[in-house]
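Bumping with the actual sequence this time:
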Amino acid sequence: HAAKSILAITFDESRRAAITCGRDGAIHFWNQDFSLLHSVNLQPQYCCAMDISPKYRTVYSCLYTPDEPSFASCACYAWSGSSWAQRGSILTRPEWKIVPAVKALQGPREGHFLLAEQHSSGNPAVAKNVIGYYDPISAPSFDKISPSTYYYEHADLITCLALWTSAQQADIFFSGSKDGVVHMWDTRIQTPAATFGTTDAPEGTGRAHDAFITSLDANEFLLLSAGYDRKCLFWDPRKPQIPVLSIPMENQVARAAMMSRNVAAVALSSPPNAVTSRSLLTVELTTGVQTAAVVSEGMRASSTRYMDLRWVPSESALYAGSTVGTLDVYTFVALQ
C-alpha cells in the first residue's frame, strides 16, 4: 500500500485470500499466494473500514474524503466469478458526515449490514451518532438502499462494531464509541439491550472504558473491548456490569482480536518516537500472560506497528496490517 497504513483487512474464505485497504486510496484484492489479483483506486477517497458477507461474497466498505471531510460514502464490491467488481454506484446520503465502521451480518440476516454513521445536524457543534440497518438484497441497486431502521443512544462517534458469534444469538451485536461507551443491541429493537460497565453518575450512562474505544471483537463466549485507556476488557455479555477479566497494557491499544476461547491478539499503538519491541502481543486469558509475537527471521520480536488485525481460524493465522503498508501473517498452533 505504497508505504501507507493498512486500515482494514477482511478475508474471503471461498478463495482463502485477503482483501486490504489503506490510506493510499487503494483496495487490494489478493490471491491465495499473496500475488495481487487486482486493485481499486479510490483517490481522492480512501477506505477506512470494510467487512465481507461470505455467503454472498460481497464486501462493504466505508469511504472517507480527506479534502471534503463532511462527504462520506459506502461502496459495495461483489465477486463476479473471476474478479471483484463494484456493485452499482457508490452510496452516499446528504446527512452523512462520516461512516467510520461497517459490519456484515451473519446467519439468517446474512447479506444485510450495519453502518456506523455520524450525521450533520445543521449545527456544526451538534452531531447525531447512529447505527443504520441496511438490506441491499431487496434494493433495486446499491446506491438506492435506505436504512430500514436506526439504532440510537450513542452520544459520541461510534468507532467499532462486532457480532456475537453464538448461533443462538444471531440478532445480537455490539457497538463502541469515542467516549468509552459499549452497547449491546438486538437488531429487532431500536434501544440497547444492555450497556457495559459501571454507571457514570453525572450522565447516568454506563461506561466500559475511560477513553476512546478502538476495538471490539467477540466469540460465542466473550466480548473483548480495548482502547486508549490501555486496557483490554473481557465481558460475559449476559453480565455486562463488570468485566470477567481486565488486563492492563503498556501502551494504548490500536486493535485487538479474539483468536480462540482463551487467547487474544493485541496490537499496541506506541507514542510518537517511542521504541518498543512489544507492538503485537498474544494474551492468555486464563493466566493473563502477555507474549510478544515474533517474526521468523531470527525469531525476533515484532516492533512493527499495526492498525488492523484479522484472525482467520481456517488458516490458524493472524493477518496484521501495518502502518508502513505491509500485510504480515503470523501462524499459530494448538490454540485453546
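The C-alpha cells above came from a reply further down the thread. The radius of gyration is 19 Å.
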